[in-house]
Specification:
By secondary structure, the chain is mainly beta. Helix content is 11%, strand content 36%. It has a domain of 93 residues. Strands 1, 2, 3, 4, 5 and 6 form a six-stranded antiparallel sheet that branches. The chain is rod-shaped, with a radius of gyration of 21 Å. The chain starts with a helix and ends in a 12-residue tail after the last strand.
């Protein structure tokens, strides 16, 4: 039985439909936009759900700011708002669509200044402080 299901599980993992550890995880963001976008009304008896999901995330090179030893990166996160629809019997509808992506930029501290001019990494950053560009 397991031998016949193995290709199915492997396919789910490779296509990203099965959760695996850190695969597909994004860095924590302080700014999460609300899913408050305008969507079309669903068909009578159907349902509509508004969601907003991360599509891309990039960090700049580290840069010093403020007291000596404080290091930051500029994180740019692309959020895509979705209008997801289900028909009256609960099946996923092809009426689902996405809206214009939102780019949100934030400063994320990666190293914190300590007494004596030293610095230490801020979680989840685990690299050396000061960071190498």
């Amino acid at each position: 039985m397991m031998r016949r299901l193995f290709p199915l599980f492997l396919g789910l993992i490779l296509t990203g439909f099965w959760p695996l550890g850190a695969a597909g995880q994004w860095a924590k963001t302080a700014i999460v936009p609300p899913a408050s976008h305008k969507c079309d009304e669903p068909v009578p008896g159907g349902e509509m759900k508004k969601t907003i999901e991360i599509a891309d995330q990039k960090d700049s090179a580290p840069h010093a700011r403020g007291a000596a030893g404080n290091w930051y990166v500029t994180r740019i996160t692309k959020w895509i708002p979705y209008c997801m629809y289900h028909d009256p019997i609960g099946l996923y509808s092809l009426d689902t669509y996405s809206l214009q992506p939102q780019l949100i930029e934030e400063e994320v501290q990666v190293c914190e200044a300590l007494a004596g001019g030293m610095s230490r990494p801020m979680a989840p950053f685990a690299g050396p402080c000061p960071p190498r560009p």
